Amino acid sequence: MIRHIIKFFLKIAYAVLFRVKVIGKENIEDGKPYIICPNHISCWDPPLMAARLKRNDVYILAKEELYINAFVKWLAKKTNVLPVKRGKQDVSLLKTCIKVLKENHIVLLFPEGTRNGIEKRGKLQNGAVVMNLSSGAPIIPVGIQASYKLFSKVTVNIGKPMDFIEYKDKKADKETLDMLSNKLMEEIITLTKKEN
115, 132, 150, 192: least surrounded by Cβ within 10 Å? Predict the structure, then answer.
């Protein structure tokens, strides 16, 4: 209930503050699991995605540093926000995400691991690819185009599902995971530069 109320007010807030356009909604079907991977340019990105995705069963990965007090932890739990220990392999979190995906829900994560990671020439984290290989849930690349200046245009380009199912039965080493993550990064970059 709380999740639906927050989403309602977020949607109104973004409609008032910005001119939001979402392209490619049809690429996310009801009742199917997805790993949604947008680029990350601002702290405005996570609530934007939560507000404008038509599905309500979205679990969002966020850095655990945001969990500053008991109220924030309570709110995060009520709104399906999962804490990420940055710089560490969190097996427990990975298992939780795979469970969520196998229940046909959505996991939303920002694979750059930090804001403007692609622009800084960083590489994507491999979490999305690992989840895809472990659960079979497709990855949805997303390109956000925004300055987030008041009343400016914000465009969300939702790409077509990707999966690397042909690697599922192979033991993917780090080199393979990096290669597949680079393919995902290329799709995200294409969507961030797409003219609409």
Answer: 150
